[in-house]
Structure formats: C-alpha cells, structure tokens
Design goal:
It contains five helices and nine strands, in the order βααβαβββαβαβββ. It is an alpha+beta fold and about 180 residues long. α1 (about 20-35) packs across α3 (about 55-65). The radius of gyration is 16 Å and the shape is globular.
C-alpha cells in the first residue's frame, strides 16, 4: 500500500485505489459533481450536466491503467477524496479529482493536489501536470490558476451524445487544457 502524509495533513492517508474501492469512489465522484448532494460543495456541475459523471467500469479502467493510478485519500479510515494520475511522457495528467462535498472549502483540495504533483514528479520524473476543465467552470479554473496552473487556450469538444459523461444542459461545453510546471516544486 502506498501511503504518504503531506505536511499539515496528519490525518490523511494516500493510497492506490483497488477494484474493490470502485463503488465507493463512484459514489464520492458523483456526490461531488452531480445531483442535489453536489450543491452542498462548490465543485458541482449540476447546472451544466445531468446524469452520471462516471461509473464502476470507468473507475476500474483508471485503477488498472498501466500508465496510471487512482489515488484514494482517506481521513480517519474513511474515503474523503480521490484523483487520477496518468503518465504521459514528460507530463502527468490529473483528473477524476473529487472531494466529499461536506469537506470542500477548508483547504483539503490544496493539500491533495500538492501531493498529486509531488507523487507524479517523484514517480515518473515529469516536469508538467496537465488537466482538462469544462471551460464554463470559471470558478474552478480560477481555483486552479491560484495553484499555479495556466490556461492554454487549447480546447476539445465535450462528447455530446455520450451519456457516459453526462447529459449536457447547455450547447457550449468544451474542455480547456490547463498546464503547470511542477519540476521545481
């Protein structure tokens, strides 16, 4: 089991998720982004997308990806957050980031993303972290910019018609690539 305790988070445990974690991870991710429960946190996408954000098959695919890992974050033995890391050459991709809605807004996300960056840098020697964010999520993009990420102006279309990613409530959704240099952290 891979565990780490970043400074200032003595009660957090970071470990690689396993297939048996998939149901709890799906519930966590859905609660952070979709439906009424997500509205208690600030990361909700409920006004942009309905339906699912992920499913057990998608989570298991990330868990078992040969070039990646899904970090499960626990506090006092309970699942509180997760994030995906995928090795892509000189960069790592950061995705599937979710924090339990009732734990958002207290600095936990900052600790988790810093640990993810450290893990990617030390595990793979990467110099950049990449992520994609729905461009309509200005508040979320601003949060990442405060963490050192920069907008690239590179967009990919939202997969309209593929309900595995949700049911769009708008016709202008796209993903923007955000990038951060993590070699000197």
């Amino acid at each position: 089991m891979d565990t780490a305790t970043p400074p200032g988070s003595a009660r957090l445990t970071f470990r690689d998720a396993i297939d048996a974690d998939a149901p709890a991870l799906v519930a966590l991710i859905e609660s952070a982004y979709r439906g009424d429960s997500s509205r208690t946190g600030w990361t909700t996408e409920a006004d942009l997308l309905e339906g699912q954000r992920t499913d057990e098959e998608g989570v298991c695919a990330v868990i078992n990806a040969p070039a990646g890992r899904l970090l499960a974050v626990e506090r006092d033995g309970g699942l509180i957050a997760c994030c995906q890391l995928e090795h892509r050459g000189d960069a790592a991709y950061f995705g599937m980031f979710a924090v339990r809605p009732d734990s958002q807004g207290g600095g936990l996300g900052k600790v988790i993303i810093a640990e993810a960056e450290r893990t990617a840098r030390e595990s793979w020697g990467v110099t950049e972290m990449h992520m994609t964010v729905i461009s309509a999520r200005e508040d979320l993009i601003a949060w990442y910019e405060r963490r050192g990420y920069r907008r690239t102006g590179q967009f990919t279309p939202f997969p309209y018609g593929d309900e595995r990613f949700g049911i769009p409530q708008r016709d202008d959704l796209a993903f923007e690539l955000l990038v951060k240099n993590i070699e000197a952290l």
